[in-house]
Design brief:
Blueprint (H helix, E strand, L loop, with lengths): L6 E6 L13 H4 L5 E7 L2 E8 L5 E9 L5 E8 L4 E6 L6 H9 L10 E7 L5 E8 L4 E9 L5 E8 L4 E9 L5 E7 L5 E8 L4 E2 L2
Antiparallel strand pairs: 1-2, 2-3, 3-4, 4-5, 5-6, 6-7, 7-8, 8-9, 9-10, 10-11, 11-12, 12-13, 13-14
Length: 205
């Protein structure tokens, strides 16, 4: 088994970050699919490359740490290095807003009690954001859709504690040099309609 002083890259037939097996020689795993190429830095796993039996790179997982060696996140990328999923164990800017929508405006957030995941499409646009309690229960999620030009057209927020929609944002780009943002509440009623122009000028019809 590896010790805390170990650095470098090792290969495995099977691998788990927890309860890991002893490393195997590269020759021993060459015909196995998938096999794992794991990089360590002072016993910390920093990078995992998953290969097929033909040595094709299938996916990559990168682990992130703070100065106290606590894991603060991980990034799953495809074979081309494009992010597919990011998991973060730190407070994100949108988390407080989501939590107050679910639990009420007086809710106070404690960053260590939550974690989040971001999913990306092939164009590296965020298509889903999920917020979890530390016990793994999903609290809320946001799904985002884009048009062919890559512009955001729909954003839906769901309360996964009470199993109900929270908010829907609809973007309309039919006007020249401007777009319309419509906000709907949990009952589907429009609560605001704003016209946004280039240069961040804002008018409310």
């Amino acid at each position: 088994m590896l010790t805390a002083q170990d650095h470098g890259t090792y290969t495995y037939r099977e691998w788990s970050r927890y309860g890991q097996n002893s490393p195997d020689s590269l020759a021993a795993v060459k015909n196995i699919s998938p096999y794992y190429e794991v990089t360590y830095d002072s016993s910390r796993v920093t990078l995992v490359k998953v290969h097929s039996a033909t040595d094709s790179l299938l996916r990559v997982i990168q682990y992130h740490y703070d100065e106290q060696n606590n894991t603060i996140g991980e990034t799953l990328s495809d074979s081309r290095g494009n992010p597919v999923l990011e998991t973060t164990f730190l407070e994100q800017p949108e988390d407080a807003n989501l939590l107050q929508k679910v639990y009420g405006p007086d809710f106070t957030m404690h960053a260590t009690h939550f974690f989040s995941r971001r999913f990306f499409d092939l164009a590296q646009r965020q298509v889903r954001y999920e917020l979890f309690a530390v016990n793994g229960k999903m609290i809320a999620h946001v799904e985002t859709q884009y048009n062919a030009a890559g512009k955001r057209i729909l954003e839906m927020t769901q309360d996964d504690v009470h199993y109900q929609p929270l908010e829907k944002l609809v973007y309309d780009y039919s006007g020249e040099g401007r777009y319309i943002l419509e906000t709907f509440d949990s009952a589907g009623k429009m609560v605001s309609r704003m016209t946004l122009f280039h240069g961040n000028q804002l008018l409310t019809p």
